[in-house]
Amino acid sequence: xxxxxxxxxxxxxxxxxxxxxxxxxxxxxxxxxxxxxxxxxxxxxxxxxxxxxxxxxxxxxxxxxxxxxxxxxxxxxxxxxxxxxxxxxxxxxxxxxxxxxxxxxxxxxxxxxxxxxxxxxxxxxxxxxxxxxxxxxxxxxxxxxxxxxxxxxxxxxxxxxxxxxxxxxxxxxxxxxxxxxxxxxxxxxxxxxxxxxxxxxxxxxxxxxxxxxxxxxxxxxxxxx
Amino acid sequence: xxxxxxxxxxxxxxxxxxxxxxxxxxxxxxxxxxxxxxxxxxxxxxxxxxxxxxxxxxxxxxxxxxxxxxxxxxxxxxxxxxxxxxxxxxxxxxxxxxxxxxxxxxxxxxxxxxxxxxxxxxxxxxxxxxxxxxxxxxxxxxxxxxxxxxxxxxxxxxxxxxxxxxxxxxxxxxxxxxxxxxxxxxxxxxxxxxxxxxxxxxxxxxxxxxxxxxxxxxxxxxxxxxxxxxxxxxxxxxxxxxxxxxxxxxxxxxxxxxxxxxxxxxxxxxxxxxxxxxx
Amino acid sequence: xxxxxxxxxxxxxxxxxxxxxxxxxxxxxxxxxxxxxxxxxxxxxxxxxxxxxxxxxxxxxxxxxxxxxxxxxxxxxxxxxxxxxxxxxxxxxxxxxxxxxxxxxxxxxxxxxxxxxxxxxxxxxxxxxxxxxxxxxxxxxxxxxxxxxxxxxxxxxxxxxxxxxxxxxxxxxxxxxxxxxxxxxxxxxxxxxxxxxxxxxxxxxxxxxxxxxxxxxxxxxxxxxxxxxxxxxxxxxxxxxxxxxxxxxxxxxxxxxxxxxxxxxxxxxxxxxxxxxxxxxxxxxxxxxxxxxxxxxxxxxxxxxxxxxxxxxxxxxxxxxxxxxxxxxxxxxxxxxxxxxxxxxxxxxxxxxxxxxxxxxxx
Lengths: 225, 279, 363
Hints:
The complex is a heterotrimer.
Chain A lengths: L1 H9 L2 H30 L4 H15 L3 H13 L10 H30 L3 H9 L4 H16 L1 H14 L12 H11 L4 H29 L5
Chain B lengths: L1 H27 L11 E5 L2 E2 L3 E4 L2 E3 L1 H12 L7 E5 L5 H7 L4 E2 L7 H4 L3 E9 L1 E6 L15 E5 L4 H8 L5 E5 L2 H10 L4 E5 H9 L5 E3 L7 E7 L4 H16 L2 H9 L21
Parallel strand pairs in B: 1-5, 1-6, 9-10, 9-11
Antiparallel strand pairs in B: 2-3, 3-4, 7-13, 8-11, 8-12
Helix pairs in contact in B: 2-8
Chain C lengths: L2 H8 L5 H30 L10 H8 L1 H38 L3 H16 L2 H14 L5 H27 L3 H9 L4 H32 L10 H12 L2 H31 L24 H6 L3 H4 L18 H8 L28
Helix pairs in contact in C: 3-11, 4-5, 4-7, 4-9, 4-10, 5-7, 6-7, 7-9, 8-9, 9-11, 10-11
């Protein structure tokens, strides 16, 4: 028990979790926007937009997140000089957030696309029969209904995003949980099990409510025929 | 009929999968050669150009050269030397388990480590130093780093030493390996890389002339040969071999060969060292 | 599920003005993307303070034979080894705990539930770091290899367990009823009838999970496991062309994962011949607690109304969270399938278009 208390006293553990949560929130915001854009591109009548969106989703679904993070630091930052701030830590944070959003946007697009598949064909046919053009039928009729069917995969994507925020360690974000955990184990190897339990329980406490909320919402909004 | 065929097929598939997984499971375990053949197993680094690097099945670097010389003096031919990888955090474990007979992997002699293993040597005294771009003359020592950016490897204490003792305003970047730090240096997002000077020299010599070592080491790291705890007889033999290497000039030649292209000179105040540890 | 299915419904066959507009937008979009790509390539060619990233001098060491035989192929072998063992382990783990969570005994269900939810909630990297350091302290051989394998087994095994549970949950109710009618106990019905069908049903999703396993072995490079990513970093440290070696590694990862995804898309049709549960995988693997994708939304949406809109032939009382062998009455009630209880049929006013209405057609 004293092990736990001394660990909390010497290391800023809640701060590390806060960094991960911040990463998750920003990445969730950007990836939702980007995912929506991607899915609209996917169902649009313009064939080049469809191809680009399909290509993007394929690319980022089949790429390990670690490589994307390393590319953000060594490629985008180092070569393309994409810099968000002069302070290293802030810069790396935003690079990691960008990498996370690019990666998650592909999964958000996939989830939304599967949600669109749950909308009965009759809705689209009726919209067409009423004379609505593409943008109108997509934004007024299809997407609102599609979101109902995509609550479950979107919730799972959010949880996966929270867990993936630990990979920001590959983008040199030094204050987030996995880097802090490595450091703590380095200096206090005697309490390694307590350290693991602290971080594991922290994530369990963060993820369980999101999971329960997802389940509840998805049942409430479940598509019933 | 179809059912029986399928059942047999399923059983065969499961048997194959079990065999394959057993194979893969065992492939991970280190191979301990207990076949009576005279072999000496030496732990080195595989990923530090200039010190210990694995290239096309051969090994090159200063640590490798010293290891070969010592093994030859101990009576082993080159063919009887087996090099294994000794990552930084596993060096003590490998010696205690007996996976290797000795370790030459930029292994600094510290009191903390002496609790778990013994050392012979030292065979080199390195010092922490800075590596900068060849055309950058604004940095000539760790004090010049205030307001600049510094890269080092995750888990190494070098960067913290600089920040605490010399330049409080320096911005730190940690990367998993020297390759990434050197790339960062090349592309201009950091201004210096810090670690032991001979490691930097090895990196600089592979850099096609674009990087240089500042040449003012500000700490001392005594590189020793890690051996099993308490083996003083072995330590004596190794120390004799190292002394021999220094006297015969091989030591000097090995350093020059591995840091070709840079003007690197080991810190003359401490080099060549007197190997007397572990006796 | 080709794009022609989805998108061609949303817009009418465009007339001449519409066609012209689409063509213009097509061209504009294409030109925009090409311009962005060219800008990026130019920037790589001439980065400020840096080296020309497109020069052959940097690319050659990343592509020549020595690179392949000494770095990429051994790294790929290490990755595949870890992935293979992780897949086998996670299938075994998933079978054990997934079936455990479905057995009639409450204690077994509880223990399995706790284990599964814990392994699903902890990030894989945290588990890898812990096992790596623990194995290094216990002086086990190849600590990073076993750390990677065991963390992957724990996480993916829990996902497979949930896939099995959702496979069982998505079976039509008649399966269990028939088994019970034949005199089988709950456990016998589970093991002989429901789980085998669930395994067939979950195979496409399991292959998708295989892609996840491969991507997560790349995390091994953070704990110094010498997989493909780590080897390409080492190759990069020889000639300082790490960006190029990373691109090659990324291409290799992409090709393998892409091939596996193609396999996962080809499987559902084949698997549907062996099972009554829907084989179409959900887009994201189930991670949320009491996984809601037990109700496979896509499958529900695709169900036809046999006999032109009359009542469904088989009750769907197994659909819902926590697919269990008993408790189906409550699930059926909560999900609104029990028409003998009108108060459970309440659907809020905003969702009136989805009310199981007496309105005609829709399919």
